[in-house]
Write a sequence for this structure.
């Protein structure tokens, strides 16, 4: 059996809170997780769920209260583990007095490349992330999206087999998000393991082989995005155009108007009757779609459950 | 020693240059030019003494301000701006990062001091005084200033590993002032005839670096020779002390959670 790309066993992190009488607050509670080689794995959770804490623990930026983790068989305490990984922090910030080329050259030095190798590699990865024209611009002049791209370039510059991304789509415009999705898909095609945290569920549904959901520092479930949702149809959604005065009162009450169009949700059994009513008032039916529970519904149900409401759990005073 | 601290050091130096830290040299140059012009007009026979005292004091003060204020920010800025996160995700150990930052600031101080030394030499040349063999004591005094700056930087770095820049600045200044008067403090303890106070002041004398030993400005001003034994003793003392502080800083920083 092959070694998992990422193996997390009982990872727990408590933070001290308070000034004089310090209490411990648990931000991650007994996380157990395995990510196989080549998987694209989504780590989902609302803000404050413990996603960034997990990534910081894996990167050795903070130290676990208990538990262990291994990446490609190497302990996270082993500095050589870092040769096998790339990491993009949340909302990355780099040395803004450097140009993109200088920054990547700086990071490439830590992987022991020669000057010629660095020059070739840095140029290639600037091209990959679409920053060739801005290569010699100081980072203080970069937009958020451009900084994210530099962040990607530094994370994959040394061809690591495992890549960790902390909220890679956060704060990006739709175009930026699309570009990030394309980069992740590209990494997936290359057979790399990608572990990324996000609270944008549509991205996870679109990109991930499997996802884990964490709420309040506790793992709620792991599986393929489809495993979390029931395949049963919960109703039908009809999108149509009609003059407001022509709509029957029963339909007009239930319809939601957006931009000159109406949307209405009806139980599956009432679909034909609703369509007949709409035809009767000469509405123009644009689409009829089944409503299935999404990963988002599952996620919101979890977050809203009263017992999970506190985002982190206070533990015994130290 | 691996090449990683060297890579970090060069980047730290580059940061200082691009953040225009070396602009302080302009003020130093203006000070030296002004002093050289004025001294030539108002002093008779003591122009060398005035220029050397003023130049060495300025080198010491400018360097000290840079060492403290840049030293306390070396680690703090990287954590605050989160630039350290991407760096420590590379195969870089924390002690390598720390040593690199320290060496980078030291390099900055060295370059700064070299430029100021050149300025001082130019001012001495301007007042029309030939360089003599006794001027070697000026070079030694500058070397002592550099050793003291290396110690101050190491203290600033050490304190910044566990406290805020404001507190680190206060601690570093406290150590410098106490260390400068360490001998006087010990003598004061003896005078009190109180065994407890005497023990405490003696402990301060032995634990803190005696910065007074690194002050050779007066000797250089008068062209007095500085004994080779003192040069060797100060060098060994600074090297050992800095090494101990770097080990302690690494130990503290290596166990710190970067929130």
């Amino acid at each position: 059996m092959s070694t998992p790309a990422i193996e997390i066993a009982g990872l727990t992190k408590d933070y001290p809170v308070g000034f004089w009488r310090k209490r411990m607050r648990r931000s991650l509670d007994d996380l157990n997780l395995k990510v196989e080689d080549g998987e694209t794995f989504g780590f989902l959770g609302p803000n404050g769920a413990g996603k960034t804490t997990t990534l910081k623990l894996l990167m050795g930026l903070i130290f676990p209260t208990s538990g262990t983790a291994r990446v490609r068989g190497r302990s996270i305490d082993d500095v050589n583990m870092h040769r096998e990984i790339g990491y993009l922090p949340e909302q990355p910030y780099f040395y803004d007095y450097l140009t993109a080329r200088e920054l990547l050259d700086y990071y490439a030095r830590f992987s022991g490349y020669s000057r010629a190798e660095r020059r070739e590699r840095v140029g290639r990865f600037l091209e990959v992330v679409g920053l060739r024209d801005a290569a010699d611009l100081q980072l203080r002049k970069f937009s958020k999206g451009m900084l994210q791209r530099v962040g990607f370039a530094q994370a994959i510059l040394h061809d690591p087999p495992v890549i960790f991304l902390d909220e890679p789509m956060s704060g990006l415009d739709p175009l930026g998000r699309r570009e990030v999705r394309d980069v992740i898909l590209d990494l997936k095609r290359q057979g790399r393991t990608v572990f990324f945290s996000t609270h944008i569920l549509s991205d996870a549904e679109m990109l991930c082989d499997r996802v884990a959901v964490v709420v309040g520092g506790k793992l709620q479930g792991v599986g393929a995005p489809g495993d979390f949702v029931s395949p049963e149809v919960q109703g039908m959604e009809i999108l149509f155009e009609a003059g407001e005065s022509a709509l029957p009162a029963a339909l007009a009450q239930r319809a939601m108007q957006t931009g000159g169009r109406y949307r209405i949700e009806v139980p599956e059994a009432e679909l034909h009757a609703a369509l007949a009513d709409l035809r009767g008032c000469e509405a123009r039916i644009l689409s009829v779609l089944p409503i299935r529970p999404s990963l988002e519904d599952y996620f919101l149900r979890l977050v809203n459950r009263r017992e999970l409401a506190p985002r982190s759990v206070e533990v015994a005073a130290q | 020693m691996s090449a990683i601290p060297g890579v970090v050091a060069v980047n730290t130096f580059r940061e200082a240059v691009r953040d225009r830290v070396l602009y302080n040299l302009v003020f130093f140059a203006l000070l030296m030019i002004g002093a050289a012009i004025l001294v030539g007009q108002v002093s008779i026979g003591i122009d060398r003494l005035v220029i050397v005292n003023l130049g060495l004091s300025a080198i010491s003060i400018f360097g000290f301000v840079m060492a403290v204020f840049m030293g306390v920010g070396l680690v703090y800025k990287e954590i605050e701006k989160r630039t350290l996160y991407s760096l420590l995700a590379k195969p870089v150990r924390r002690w390598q990062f720390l040593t690199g930052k320290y060496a980078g600031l030291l390099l900055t101080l060295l370059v700064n001091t070299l430029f100021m030394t050149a300025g001082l030499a130019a001012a001495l040349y301007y007042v029309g005084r030939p360089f003599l063999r006794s001027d070697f004591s000026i070079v030694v005094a500058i070397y002592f200033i550099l050793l003291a700056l290396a110690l101050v930087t190491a203290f600033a770095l050490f304190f910044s590993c566990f406290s805020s820049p404001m507190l680190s600045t206060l601690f570093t200044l406290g150590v410098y002032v106490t260390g400068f008067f360490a001998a006087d403090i010990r003598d004061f303890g003896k005078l009190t005839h109180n065994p407890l106070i005497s023990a405490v002041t003696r402990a301060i004398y032995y634990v803190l670096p005696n910065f007074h030993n690194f002050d050779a400005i007066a000797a250089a001003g008068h062209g007095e020779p500085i004994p080779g034994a003192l040069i060797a003793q100060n060098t060994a003392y600074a090297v050992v002390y800095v090494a101990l502080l770097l080990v302690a800083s690494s130990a503290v920083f290596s166990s710190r959670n970067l929130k």
